[in-house]
């Protein structure tokens, strides 16, 4: 994939909890210079001026244990504050219990607050899940009307995206939903592996370094990029 084509499927991501409004603005400006498709931020940092970019806000982040009505309200506020897309974390306790109707209801409630053409991505924290749970989570997301399934928050000690998880997610949704790989993707080789596995969107914080690698140049990895 050519450098500019790759950049357009990147959600340039800054989710460190200590991020200031000034840092968020500088990050958006960097995203614009890099030519990425979107910038992903915490909802409290919205609204932002982001001409030419989609704005993504996370929801129920990073644990997914918020009450459903809180997630729904948070998503609605993000949309009101200018978010084009919302990346929500599922309730992993419901997944562990095999309560798929509960998982679907949680997602559907957030979907109701994120109407089309806004996009809803569902973070399943794939490194924590068995293959059967990954498949079940993807099916629940599809049944609830999500637009994407997403591997990871990047904040769970279990790990981030893996080629195996992306392949399984892509196979489960069969092109009906997009697949976003995120968490621990720090090199151009890792990016290519995720795309080959079926990822259609990428969540990256070390975007500048990866794009520079594709350009045959070098760039310092931004501070905190190993967090996502």
Automatic annotation (TrEMBL):
What is stated as this protein's family in its record?
Belongs to the DeoC/FbaB aldolase family. DeoC type 1 subfamily.
Q: What is this protein called?
A: Deoxyribose-phosphate aldolase
InterPro entries, sorted = Aldolase_TIM, DeoC, DeoC/FbaB/LacD_aldolase, DeoC_typeI
What Pfam families does UniProt report for this protein, alphabetically?
DeoC
Instruction: State the UniProt keywords alphabetically.
Output: Cytoplasm, Lyase, Schiff base
Q: What class of enzyme is it?
A: lyase
Q: Where is this protein localized, as stated in its record? A: Cytoplasm
Principal location listed in the UniProt entry? cytoplasm
GO CC field? cytoplasm
Query: What is the role of the protein in this entry?
Result: Catalyzes a reversible aldol reaction between acetaldehyde and D-glyceraldehyde 3-phosphate to generate 2-deoxy-D-ribose 5-phosphate.
One of the record's GO molecular function terms: deoxyribose-phosphate aldolase activity
Q: Source gene?
A: deoC
E.C. number: 4.1.2.4
- What SMART domains does the annotation carry? DeoC
Q: Which organism is it from?
A: Pengzhenrongella frigida
List, from the UniProt record, the residues annotated as the active site of this protein: 87, 150, 180
Please provide the Gene Ontology terms (biological process) for this protein: 2-deoxyribose 1-phosphate catabolic process; carbohydrate catabolic process; deoxyribonucleotide catabolic process
Pathway entry: Carbohydrate degradation; 2-deoxy-D-ribose 1-phosphate degradation; D-glyceraldehyde 3-phosphate and acetaldehyde from 2-deoxy-alpha-D-ribose 1-phosphate: step 2/2
**Which reaction is catalysed here?**
2-deoxy-D-ribose 5-phosphate = D-glyceraldehyde 3-phosphate + acetaldehyde
């Amino acid at each position: 994939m050519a450098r500019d084509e790759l950049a357009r499927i990147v959600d340039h991501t800054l989710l460190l909890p200590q991020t200031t409004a000034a840092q968020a603005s500088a990050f958006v400006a960097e995203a614009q210079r890099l030519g990425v498709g979107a910038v992903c931020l915490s909802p409290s940092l919205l609204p932002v001026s982001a001409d030419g970019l989609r704005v993504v806000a996370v929801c129920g982040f990073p644990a997914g244990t918020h009450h459903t009505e809180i997630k729904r309200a948070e998503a609605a506020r993000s949309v009101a504050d200018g978010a084009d897309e919302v990346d929500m974390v599922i309730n992993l306790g419901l997944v562990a219990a095999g309560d798929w109707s509960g998982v679907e209801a949680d997602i559907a409630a957030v979907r109701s607050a994120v109407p089309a053409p806004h996009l809803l991505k569902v973070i399943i924290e794939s490194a924590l899940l068995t293959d059967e749970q990954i498949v079940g989570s993807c099916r629940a997301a599809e049944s609830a009307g999500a637009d994407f399934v997403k591997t990871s928050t990047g904040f769970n000690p279990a790990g981030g995206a893996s080629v195996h998880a992306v392949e399984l997610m892509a196979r489960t949704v069969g092109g009906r939903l997009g697949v976003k790989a995120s968490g621990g993707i720090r090199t151009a080789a890792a990016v290519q592996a995720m795309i080959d596995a079926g990822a259609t969107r990428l969540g990256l914080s070390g975007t500048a370094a990866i794009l520079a690698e594709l350009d045959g140049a070098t760039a310092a990895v931004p501070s905190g990029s190993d967090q996502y």
